[in-house]
Design goal:
Blueprint lengths: L3 H7 L9 H15 L5 H25 L1 H6 L15 H20 L3 H16 L10 H21 L4 H22 L3 H6 L5 H5 L1 H25 L4 H20 L8 H26 L2
Helix pairs in contact: 2-3, 2-7, 2-8, 2-13, 3-5, 3-6, 5-6, 6-7, 7-8, 8-11, 8-13, 11-12, 12-13
């Protein structure tokens, strides 16, 4: 019988590190702008929303891609191919987390609740995109990009420019490093007629496009800092984030992707946490 650790492994729970820090930026930015004391209740609800939405998205991805995962040597040891978790159980896990996500948004505000089906459509819909578009990476980025603006909406119930800029930055940041990650499956995707930017334009050009996406992401982060009138702490965090993004591109070559996990997981996880800490520190120490 599958245990909770198996389901956490199924959805790679530790990869929440990519979206949660940016959700915290949106959350603390909202309270700082309103001049209010941070609500631990809303903080907990926002964290739960991030976890439930991501669990639903990753669980659905594993369910939808189970046949491909069985054939791909890189993914054949995942929980569904190994029959540690059955497809039916994985689907129920998705339904449970999707339901909990919508229920949690109800306790935030009406806007978040009414937008929750749209959010689920985005994060679940990504799982089908490699079948019909080479730009699936942007759909993945769109899913994670909901974190900063979603957390901001949870507090304020209205949109604003700075959190939206952070959301678009996340979109291009995630899409950029997902292009790098997709290079691992280049041959498999060609054989099974799956689409990706590396398949579309080749590995070398894909890395160039990844760099361009990251240039856009960094530009949006700096623009958000300017419009948000942040101080030197934010700019220090942005500089560190920039350095880590640049470094990941030095690790991966078209003919050498042996360090892709370091570039994809470690550096991007560290970058998101450090940047969020610096932004939040700027808000409350200099704001």
């Amino acid at each position: 019988m599958s245990g909770i650790k198996d389901y956490f492994s199924l959805v790679k729970i530790h990869h929440t590190i990519f979206s949660l820090p940016f959700a915290m930026i949106g959350f603390f930015l909202a309270f700082h702008e309103n001049g209010e004391t941070v609500s631990l209740r809303i903080l907990l609800l926002v964290i739960l929303c991030v976890l439930f939405a991501r669990n639903a998205a990753m669980g659905f991805n594993r369910y939808v891609d189970r046949e491909f995962d069985m054939k791909n040597p890189r993914t054949a040891l995942r929980e569904i191919p190994r029959r540690i978790i059955s497809p039916k159980s994985a689907l129920w896990f998705v339904i449970l987390n999707a339901g909990l996500f919508m229920l949690t948004t109800w306790f935030l505000n009406r806007l978040c609740f009414f937008l929750s089906p749209v959010a689920l459509l985005v994060v679940l819909g990504y799982s089908f995109t490699k079948r019909f578009t080479s730009f699936a990476h942007l759909f993945l980025g769109m899913g994670l990009a909901l974190a900063p603006i979603g957390a901001y909406l949870a507090v304020t119930a209205h949109f604003a420019a700075v959190p939206l800029l952070y959301s678009f930055a996340v979109l291009f940041w995630v899409a950029g490093f997902d292009i790098i990650y997709a290079m691992q499956d280049y041959d498999f995707d060609i054989e099974h007629r799956l689409k990706s930017i590396p398949v579309l334009v080749g590995k070398r050009q894909a890395l160039i496009l990844s760099i361009l996406f990251h240039v856009v992401a960094l530009g949006l982060i700096y623009l958000a800092g300017y419009l948000g009138d942040f101080g030197w702490i934010h700019w220090t965090g942005a500089a560190i984030f920039t350095g880590l993004v640049v470094y990941q591109h030095l690790l991966v070559k078209p003919d050498d992707i042996s360090k892709v996990n370091l570039a994809f997981f470690t550096l991007n996880g560290i970058a998101s946490v450090i940047f969020a800490c610096f932004v939040i520190a700027d808000l409350y120490l200099l704001g």
